[in-house]
Fold each of these.
Amino acid sequence: MKTGLISSDAKAGERRWNHQTASRNRVLEAPPVNLVGCYPQVSIQGFQYLVDFGAGETIRYHRVNKDKTCSCDTPFCEAVEVVRQYLQAGGQRAPEPAIIPTCPICGAKTYPDRNWDGKYTKSPGWRCEKGGLRHFLEAKCERIKKQLAENPWLIPPAPGYPGVKRDEVMTWEECEAINRKTFLETGYDPTA
């Protein structure tokens, strides 16, 4: 249904409108005035609440955690109260943060490192407070060693096929040693 503004000329005032025509040609009202900047806006960003106080404030954006602390480190920050009122009014709750475990190497606290998130495994990357990236890589290496020990197959067996284990595959060093031994026994020199 198309709607438009009714002209205000004299001929339009003289027209007789029936109920059906008048309902089709309603005057469009202006949208309500947007009061952004007049009151704080609350939105969800990750696991936190983002409070926007507007351009006139010295600190425009505040990030409030679920433990009622603000990113500005001000005790009794107004943003915490704004989030409380937002939630009491039925606002959407922020999701629970993912719990990052302690370091499996030393037991110290860890913090996320997005540069080391697993592209294929989808496991989160982290760094240890004491050991840093080294403890993350050591833990990852131990997990890979454990998985290799639990699954020794390079190609698993199938009906009519015995499969190939990882320890059955020769390395290039082993192949070179066998070839050298064969060359010495037969007197064959591949470089001649």
Amino acid sequence: MTVVTSVEQLNALYGAPGESSLVKVTDHVLPEHRTMIEASPFMALATVGPEGLDCSPRGDADAVIHIEDDRTLMLPDWRGNNRIDSLSNIVRDPRVALLFLIPGSNTTMRVNGRAVVRIDEAITQRFVMDGRHPRSVVVIAVEEVYSQCARAVLRADLWNPDKFRDTSQLPTVGQMLASAKKGFDGEAYDREWPGRAATTMW
């Protein structure tokens, strides 16, 4: 087994990146970036903390994130499972990475930066859904913005409905929970989940 142990080995294996891979990175949101990001209702938020890494899915009814200005993004933290893994990481290590998906587009957008968690009413009250506002808002100072090559989404054929999986053939969350913890009532969890989700979306 041959294991790569240095950046020099990687550079020798892959060669130099093309010009477009280098010039695409900016330290702020360009108008074209704004159009793409505002079209995205879903993103993955990557954070790092003393316990390790975390990558959390984030979604919203419209744009998943608010662009305050070309160097500042705001992410309302809507209701979830209260594990607060991402937020716990951010308050101890501000580095974050964002990956935006746009339904129907093979181009993804990436943002790297540093974040803080704000809870003052002046900012939480700006985001309201169904009469509720988030308990906190993640404010991201942009350091890098760039589009990602479309090959990954093209290879996955991600938006092709003919490739969608038959979810009846996949395990339910309740089944996975029951497998993880002996005695957990997975059937009750699956049965109650739709109603619980409908009243706790925001």
Amino acid sequence: MENYSVDRYRQLCAQVAQAASAAGRGPGAVRLMGVTKTVPAEKVNAYIDAGLDLIGENRVQEFLDKYPTYHKQGLEIHFIGQLQRNKVKYIVDKVHMIESVDSLELAREISKRCAAIGKKMDVLIEVNIGGEASKGGILPGKLTEFLTEISSFSGLRVAGLMAIPPISEDIAVQKHYFDEMYKLFVDIKDKKIDNVFMETLSMGMSGDFQAAIACGSTQVRLGRTLFGARD
């Protein structure tokens, strides 16, 4: 497994860097996140030892079970799944960022829990860029209003945006949604809202990460293509 993890990780790092270069961006412009849902801790650790320094966790209980055994030196952990307010207290002391903020109530709870432990949590706002009823996220037209409302929350800091567009194998369709996200990202940055910093644009997964990078993504979330098919 160790050789596989080293080879696969390096291969994907090269693909990410190549896509960034093709878009006229530097080799360090895009971060590779390993999405660890259902991946055993020992397998994740093999990749961490191979150089993976950013992982994304989807499920609170699974994360809590695996967290004690992770090789945490130099490791950055983001929570990327849908997060219930009553679970926030279990993770705020363990993660570096929460990427799936999609409601005022959740933002308020994160801020409250972080303020209580003297922490300011970096968060990404999830945008429902395709307007899909089956997905969470803030609708694009409501984003500025939402950001203005949460900008005063002392226990969090808005570090950027994330989105999972409608699934399509058509690159033109993929790029349409990624372009729309990038426009939002730039527009919000230009508004200079207090406590809102557009540093991270998290979009692109195993099936579309190269299109996302071409459109301005700064972070791609790779699960299957990095770790192999899930058990």
Amino acid sequence: MPVGNAVIRDAVEADVAALAAIFAADDKGGHGDTADPSALPAYLAAFRRIGDSPDNRLFVIEFGGEVVGTAQVTFITSLSGRGSTKMTIEAVQIRSDMRGHRLGERLMRHCIEFGRARGVALIDLMSNSVRTDAHRFYERLGFVKSHAGFKMKLE
């Protein structure tokens, strides 16, 4: 499959239903995502909040005219690290039938270069501990396991 034909671009509102379907098909994420049209208003509201923030970018990768993956980047400036800015890459997903064709690699390299162009000092990435294939993928791209992550659900 020629990944050269894939297009990475900013997500638009018309992509939101496809993105929700990609997240809903993820059996390991456990985020409660759904492709049910009744949930679309919640996804659209989140999409608009992301778009309104100058510190967030939501990318999609399109192949054959279809949205087949996504990644979100968020920029955080902290006093630690001498006031440096870091970038977090999250919500990385490639549609299951499109995995193994280097589309994820292309999307991740796009995110990395986007951060480099913004002058970030560090890129953070968290991955669910059960996603061992994804961990190998991220390590192959140069990411290093360096910290333990913690979460607290409030809802």
